[in-house]
Amino acid sequence: VMQELGLVGLRIQRMPNESDLEFGIPSQYSYMTVCAPSCHDCSTLRAWWEEDEERRQRFFKNVM
C-alpha cells in the first residue's frame, strides 16, 4: 500500500521486523525504504558500538 501511494518506509537496522534476525539486511529492503542505524528508541550508533562488544562483533562478522 505504501509503495502504491509513493510513501517512503523506515527500517531501523538494529530493530528488524523479522524475529529470527538480530540485524536487518538493508539490501533486502524495498527501493522506497530509508534504513537508519538507530532512532529515538535506542542508543546512538556510537554508544551502541562502545557498550556491547559481543553484539558489535556479531554485527561486524555477519553484516559488514
Automatic annotation (TrEMBL):
InterPro entries: GH, Glyco_hydro_77
Protein name listed in UniProt: 4-alpha-glucanotransferase
Major place of residence: cytoplasm
One term under GO cellular component: cytoplasm
Species this chain originates from: Medicago truncatula var. truncatula
Family assignment from sequence similarity: Belongs to the disproportionating enzyme family.
Location(s) in or outside the cell: Cytoplasm
Assigned keywords, A-Z: Carbohydrate metabolism, Cytoplasm, Glycosyltransferase, Transferase
Domain of life per record: Eukaryota
Keyword match Transcription: no
GO biological process, one term: carbohydrate metabolic process
Gene label: AGT
Gene3D superfamilies: Glycosidases
One term of GO molecular function: 4-alpha-glucanotransferase activity
Chemical reaction(s) catalysed: Transfers a segment of a (1->4)-alpha-D-glucan to a new position in an acceptor, which may be glucose or a (1->4)-alpha-D-glucan
